[in-house]
Amino acid sequence: MLISKENLKQNVSLAWPLAMNSVLMQSMVLIDLLLVAPLGEISIAALGITSAIVSLLIGLQNSLGNGTQMIIARATGAGETQKISTDLMSGLTVNIGFSVFAFLALWLGASPLLALVSDNPDIIVQALRYLHVAMFTILVSSLTQVIIVYFNASRQTRIPMYGFMIEIPCNFLVSWVLVHGLFGVPEMGLQGAAIGSLVAVFIRLVYLLVMVRNEKNLDVPYGYRHMSRSTVWAHIVEVSPIAANFLVLMGGMTLYQMLFAQLSVYDYAAITLIYPWMRIGTQFVNAWAQASAITVSQHIGRNTVSEIPEFVRQAVNITQILAVVVALMFFLFSFIVPYIYPNIEVETMHALALIAPIYIATPLVRTYNTICGHALRAMGDAYKVLRVHVVTQWVVALPLCVLCIYLGLPVYLVFGVTLLEECLKVINFRAIKAKRLKAYQVLSA
């Protein structure tokens, strides 16, 4: 089937700033790591623990924001400016409510949580200092997240991208000064990195507030006045399966890591080394899928559902092209791994060679699942998407992974369970997508 140039242009204009946002967000973690690395293993370990906690909470914020994004996109497609304002305030209430809960949970439970993770008192002290600042970063981030999804849903994805481009150099400069105590400033170590992130996120918030004030289609006072318990509850009902979906996937990924840790040190090292590259490789595909979901939501808002089947088919076609490109990149990557990691053991390099076919083939199926997951959530099938993830990952793949490790099977079979999981999802998503698109065709007939 031919790919519409118009659809390609519209989605590319949405997708590339979204992809840049994801890459820039990932780079913030790298900035802290690069600045903290010279402080020694204690600081690095403390950063590793705290960044995992903060990333989980920020990820939940983002998942709630993705739900708000689809709701606002529908209202934008329908041209309902008053509903946009109400949806925005409802989304802000939900996101801030979650962030306040997370703030209180960290305030009351950070010490016992860290005591469970580490028995090193030096690591716990540094991690607590970091978290005491990061709690406020989470609160500020909830405001920025909702404003960002408003701009994304309104097809103004470049504005959030510019916000990240302002934030990152501010984060680097402030953290650099505070971590190492430059220009007469007291040396604060790991806590300085946390303060730098807080200052940078606050600067991004100021920028976004200035930009959102110029929006003619947004009436915040109206949205606040007309927000009610029913609108907030309806918002929670719609975004909760998306948040649950994130928790299921994040929990599954964490359990996978714990299971892989039962392999030999060389096999586990190989999987650990390849995972970040697999995440980076999916950022552009994920951005394309998000852009497609925004377009689908706007079609629903405009009541032009007859155009959705053709658009989704074309979006999937483009995704399949992206899948081949990503797989080819991983194929080339498999040849340069020895140059990227020149000092690793021969056994680890052998394990990397064994799992190479798995990580090369994975994008060919995972990209399809990504586009289907986002599109189906936009079409109102969030609970069906959640069910697919629960069954394929928690009922089939994870128990099978446990069995493979128990039987002492080779690393490529253990790691290959993740590819099997993606293949099972393809079968389910294809059936759900076909049924939903057929329903839209019947409505438009």
Automatic annotation (TrEMBL):
Alphabetical keyword list: Membrane, Transmembrane, Transmembrane helix, Transport
MF annotations from Gene Ontology: antiporter activity; xenobiotic transmembrane transporter activity
Record field: transmembrane: 12-36, 42-60, 92-110, 130-151, 163-183, 189-212, 232-253, 259-278, 321-341, 394-420
Any Pfam family the entry gives: MatE
A single GO cellular-component term on record: plasma membrane
InterPro entries: MATE_fam, MATE_MdtK
Record-given protein name: MATE family efflux transporter
Species of provenance: Reinekea thalattae
